[in-house]
């Protein structure tokens, strides 16, 4: 299985880039993982929220294939503990999912077409985080999930 975190816009802050690099390197030992960064939308000042979500959806759909399993990182999604998230990834591997894609939406969330295409929604927290921080938190949780599945001492309960 390959896992992709699909996001719009680059990460700007050096400390977040450093953290992402750290966990992306660690993940190479467990699974094929890619952070795919789509370009920011241009000239959004004159767009309504809905128009912006539609344009972002078009960017996402250029990357998504019909057979891909899509999970939205969405504040209305299910909240899982780290061990339950590890179980979710394990079930996806057992089900022989070829490509699991996690999407982080833009500032206004996802267009209805993305919600319709998604296989499920997952929330990282009831708290609100910047889209750039979510990237680091999510990649760390994927790493944590694989250490849980391998019985390694990174995670403590």
From TrEMBL:
Signal peptide: none annotated. The keyword Cytoplasm applies. Pfam families: SPOUT_MTase (PF02590). It is found in: Cytoplasm. S-adenosyl-L-methionine binds at residues 73, 105, 124-129. It catalyses: pseudouridine(1915) in 23S rRNA + S-adenosyl-L-methionine = N(3)-methylpseudouridine(1915) in 23S rRNA + S-adenosyl-L-homocysteine + H(+). Its EC number is 2.1.1.177. It is an enzyme of class 2 (transferase). CDD domains: RlmH-like. Keywords: Cytoplasm, Methyltransferase, rRNA processing, S-adenosyl-L-methionine, Transferase. InterPro entries: Alpha/beta_knot_MTases, RlmH-like, tRNA_m1G_MTases_N. HAMAP family: 23SrRNA_methyltr_H. Belongs to the RNA methyltransferase RlmH family. Specifically methylates the pseudouridine at position 1915 (m3Psi1915) in 23S rRNA. Homodimer. This is Ribosomal RNA large subunit methyltransferase H.
């Amino acid at each position: 299985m390959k896992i992709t975190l699909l996001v719009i816009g680059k990460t700007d802050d050096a400390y977040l880039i450093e953290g992402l690099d750290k966990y992306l390197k660690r993940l190479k030992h467990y699974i094929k993982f890619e952070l795919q960064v789509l370009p920011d939308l241009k000239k959004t000042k004159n767009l309504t929220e809905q128009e912006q979500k539609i344009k972002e959806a078009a960017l996402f759909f250029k990357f998504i294939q019909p057979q891909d399993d899509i999970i939205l990182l969405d504040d209305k999604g299910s909240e899982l503990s780290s061990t339950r998230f590890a179980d979710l990834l394990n079930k996806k591997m057992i089900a022989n999912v070829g490509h699991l894609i996690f999407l982080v939406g833009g500032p206004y969330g996802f267009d209805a077409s993305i919600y319709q295409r998604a296989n499920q929604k997952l929330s990282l927290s009831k708290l609100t985080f910047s889209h750039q921080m979510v990237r680091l938190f999510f990649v760390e949780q994927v790493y944590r999930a694989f250490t849980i599945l391998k019985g390694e001492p990174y995670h403590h309960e």
